[in-house]
Amino acid sequence: MNSRTLFQQAVTLHSQGRLAEAGAIYRRLLAETPSNFQLQYQLSLSLFQQQRPAEALDLISAALAFQPRQPEALMLRGTLLASSGRREEALTDFDQVLAQKPDFPSAIFNRALALLELGRRAEAVNAFDRFLALAPDSVEAWLNRGAALQGLGRLEEALSSYENALKHNPDHGLTWLNRGTLHKEMGRFQEALESFDRALKAMPHHAGAWRGRGSALVGLLQFGEALKSFDRSLEITPGDHDVVRERNNLLDAIHLFADMPPGANAAEIWLHRAAFLQVQQRLEDALKALDQSLASDPDYHSALITKGQILTELGRAEDGMTSYRRHAEAAYGGRATRAPADPSHKQRHDEEQRAYLTEHGIRDEFHLDAGARVAIAVNPTNAEDVARQWHETNPQIAVIDNLLTEEALEGLRHFCRASTMWRRPYRNGYLGAMPEFGFACPLLAQIAEELHAVFPSVIGEHSLRFLWGFKYDNRLSGIPMHADQAAVNVNFWIAPDDANRDPASGGLKIWPIKPPSDWHFHRYNADEAAISAFMAEAKAEPIVIPHRANRAVVFDSDLFHETDRVDFADGYLNRRINVTMLYGRRTFRGG
Known about the structure:
57% helix; Serine Threonine Protein Phosphatase 5, Tetratricopeptide repeat; 4 domains
């Protein structure tokens, strides 16, 4: 059988889908004529159809060395390049095809897809429009055009594009899925739910559609049904961290609404609406709801606290501090900090603080120091070293000495010593000052802002979410092992060095291990039995950072950590004080 007859036989087998048999003949013929373009093209096409892209790409590239402008070969190589993630190179091939054949539909469509995948959405829209002029009934083109428009924020145009896709195929599951996502983005939760249901009719085992359905039901406040949808999504893709996080947020929202009292007044209703919007991360909308709550009751304590939280997370730290202080003044002004039921370590602290305040001429039972801003709060000379530590260590931990300028350090020490905000006693022997107790001042806001500015490679785009101070009894225990609900943890100490009796301890222990991704906040933050069992199984050893005055430890908040042994000198000015600032929201990254 001569070569021509063999080639025709291979082409026939190829057209019948008998790709391996056809490929064997192509290879046999190529062994005789290795530079034959047509054989190389046909074999690379069969390899592509057999889902062997790497071999196909090598072969079609070799073929194009002989005929570099052949459109079908350029088209095939561009498709292979795009599928392997080399989209810029693919665009070059598609452009060469279109220079020769301006109306080659496949080249126009694949070029549009490559532009969309590269994030060049406006160009992608124009390219899909060019394709749709040739093929106006293409569902895939209308769908992807809608996705490009949605990414550009041109939502009504995107919706129109999805409607065109559904006009040509009313049962197209992916279009219904995108349509649901778009309606959810627009706050049209009922329409979103209907779209996700239609998507699931076409794709009943699509985890993303079940997740979208759950999100739409959350928007409609149908929490029970939403939980069922999230659970169905997790049955299909167990351990999907985004679904786990969204489901956990929903449980938080359910708790908030369950606590709303019967016959709630307008201020309470607006507060719970704000709390729900906060869980959904619709922070600006939540802030508007809080303003409505406070318009009904200007001193509504819970609304002032929540407003402080949201303003802080929106990057308006000083405004947030103002709201927190307003709450503290309304809630505690004129009230004694001591109570007969207080544990002995708190009573001892309050007596020492009263003596300190009297010495400074302050006789009010409730007092918040001004905590004024200073010229520069965070020492900028540490920036380069901290960035290096952060990027070179695994797990990510950076130790910063001389964090604050001397003026800021002394100002913060006086604020912490003079303010009657140490209200929450813990059984291990330390006291907590939360923002709503008065741990809020312009200086703390300045430190939070300057940490972000001085250490951008560490803090990143995360905003301050929460902060607190802890003050310790001289010899009692500190905080037990836990992880925090944040992305980056900044912990720093302000007591003088000579207060610490043991310079090798008194700081922090950090374990290079994170909680399982499906643990809820209470479990990884406060369930000591579960944490101990998990750590015993992991057999991890802690990293110990000793206490130093004005030393900060910055670390990935997912890491378990606890206070090291405390042994400080007697006297009010020697009490160990640490400040914690949490940036961003927890996103479990494994490891």
